[in-house]
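[retry 2/3] Histidyl-tRNA synthetase: previous attempt timed out, resubmitting with same input.
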Amino acid sequence: MIKAPPTPKGFRDIKPEMAKGKREAINKIVSVLEEYGFVPIETPTIEFAETLEGKYGDEEKLIYKFTDRGGRKLALRYDLTVPLARYVATYNPPLPFRRYQIGEVFRDEPTGPGRLRQFVQCDADIIGDSSIDSDIELLLLSDTYTLPVGETTIPIGPLN
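[retry 2/3] Histidyl-tRNA synthetase: success.
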């Protein structure tokens, strides 16, 4: 019997039945976000390291950093917030800008129950509107879609 190579600690494969459940949950969340008028954006999984450095305090040590063959210092995105700030500074979208993003993020932290090094993050933001109405709307939005009673995360299988 041939033994397959393992995945790195804190990373995992998601089997078809769990991937289907994950996709269904994401689709429900997206439908609510778009009902509230949010538009999707996607940012690269890899950013220049200097874009992410200095933004996370002590947590900065958890950023996966590397140098590519061209000598550029790069990093895997730690969250979706700093890439959003870079996106807004780059493209200056009309304000208020109502965006959402669902994507993989990476943290080089100790693993354990419920703590992976690669996971999906979902963000919804209203940029350029500091009114209390925006805050209330985001609270209402977060209450619109809830997971079944007793679940706080989408179950997608055991940790490696």
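[retry 2/3] Histidyl-tRNA synthetase: The two ends are 21 Å apart (CA to CA).
[retry 2/3] clearing retry counter.
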